[in-house]
Amino acid sequence: MQINELLKQVGIDRRAESLYSFDRKTVWAVNVATELALECFELLAAESARSGYYPVILGDPEEVEEDLVDLDIGDFSPEELICQAEEIDPVSWFEQRVNSDREYFELPRSKVIELESVPEIFAVLYSHDGSHLLDEVVLALLPTRYCWEVPAWLGFGGWGDCPEPAEHVAVLRHWYELYGARIVTLSRDTMELTVADPPEGDTLELAREHFVYCPDVVFQDTGSIDVLAEYLKRCRIWHFCWN
Asked: Does the predicted model carry a pTM greater than 0.85?
């Protein structure tokens, strides 16, 4: 299916532009009005099995352009990263990551759990201070049917606490299979997922996985693994930020 024909089917009357290509497989992008971005995402995601393209919202067009200047597509191969991910057992990976620095990954606990109201929003759609929606965001179409492969096609990861791209792919597939978690947004340092089948019962182990995957969900946000576990029972959007 032609990309621009696909866009017209979901009501986007703009032509997509090529961001870059790998072996004749192209990553496409188009700017869309932010208030329409999630609707367009859902329509395109519903078509991904047929079209062969999975959508992801990349955020502020100016930041995306800046990031493309720094991106060296010769440094990675999406298909090789996806193959590497097949060799990663996510459960073992969580344990190996903890064992690499047990002091750093010691679980912050709390006896008193006080939950604040958490707005179910996608931060990537907003200005950095959260005061207003962006006018437009970049919506990318990646040559894959599988949401968990997004980091491989964007070469996302591999700095600071942020896992390597292949590790992202393995973990995201793990959560997709268990909870129907799908990646919706991916900016320069933030990833946001929606959850079709939220966890039930004890969520402490899932909270531990979130913390090991992205320590700042506890260090910068909830303050303890116990608070995070309670949030996971009620939240349909999962936020991760490595900055």
From this structure: yes
